[in-house]
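W.,

You were right to be curious about this one. When I first looked at the sequence I had no strong expectations either way, so I just let the prediction run and decided to look at it fresh. Below is the sequence, 243 residues in total, followed by the output.
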Amino acid sequence: MKGLERGAIHALVLVLGSLAASITAAAELTPYLAEYDVKIRFLSGVLTTRLDRTEENYVAVHKVEPKGIAAALVKGAIEETSVFQVGEEGVRPLEYRSSDTISSDKTEADFRFDWSTRSISGELDGKPAEMHFDGEAHDRISIQYAMMHDMLTGETGRTYVLFDIDEFKTLHIKNIGTQEINVPAGRYTAVGIQHQAEGSSRITTLWCVPELDYLPVIIEQHRKGKLNLRAKLAHYEAAPIGD
């Protein structure tokens, strides 16, 4: 993949940006725009995340792109979109789309969630695909809103089922305490949470700020004890003006 580890980039998309939404006690999500400076090993990038609200649903769009020298070495981007609802059952994804033009094995995905049959169907790289799940499941974007909702209600020790395009993964979450954090966007006291998929050596740590409705201001991923990526909040804007 010309210097970038595909798993690290996908993990970045999974954990960034979505947590930046503000959720009220009534589980309302506040539209936002956030930007992070990203380091994946020795290369630099930028992640832009945005949440908008329609009459009935929410739409989150996340995009990772290389910048600086990395832009000359690596071409393309990863852009993911999730359409989801928030109700009595919590966060439930309805649609998920992904376009990965960075990886050597470029991927296009377009899926729909049917909650009456607990099925996910659509296309992966132009071929039809369908999977079934029990209980709850989330795509790589909507799962972060589910995590945010649980953090606000104090449920930080549970597990989540992630639909990772072609397989399901069980993520375990734990709280690791508080820490003073400095990022380009400011200085904060942040709460640390970690998540790790069963059977994976990757551990992702998010430092989330209560006063910003648990917006993650630093995201780190370690694999076998070595730092793979770090992202720092550079800009956050609540309720941006839409297109």
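Here's what jumped out at me. DSSP finds three helices and 16 strands in the chain. And, maybe more interesting for your project: The mean pLDDT is 84.

Coffee later to discuss?

I.
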